[in-house]
Amino acid sequence: MGKGYHVEVKARRNEPTEKLIRRFSKKVREERIIEEARERMYYIKPSVKRRREKIRRKKVLDKLKNGPLSPKPRRNK
Fold first, then answer.
1. Domain count across the chain
2. Domain assignment present for 23
3. DSSP label of 32
4. Stretch 4-11: mean pLDDT, rounded?
């Protein structure tokens, strides 16, 4: 099937609940649990995965080659 996840965050002494939730959310993000669930929601053919990855790599290389885009000048009305 798939790999199981076990993310555990123990409350520290006098730690507010909001901070505990924030630490839990950070761990979930680092483990990429939500992203993987979204990816697995629908089947993506290997050819489509390769095509998307190729397009993504091309965009990254173009961005690195051209440098960061300069901000557009503001128009005053």
1. 1
2. yes
3. T
4. 88
30 found inside a domain: yes
Each residue's pLDDT tens digit, 56-75: 999 999 999 887 665 666 77
pLDDT 10s digits, 34-54: 999 998 999 999 999 999 999
- For 10-31, b/e burial (b = at least 16 CB within 10 A) is eeeeeeeeeeeeeeeeeeeeee
Dihedral of the alpha carbons of 19, 20, 22, 28, in degrees to the nearest 10 = 170
Distance separating alpha carbons of residues 57 and 33, to the nearest angstrom: 23
Closest-CA residue to 8 (of 31, 21, 24, 25): 24
The confidence score (pLDDT) of residue 58 equals 95
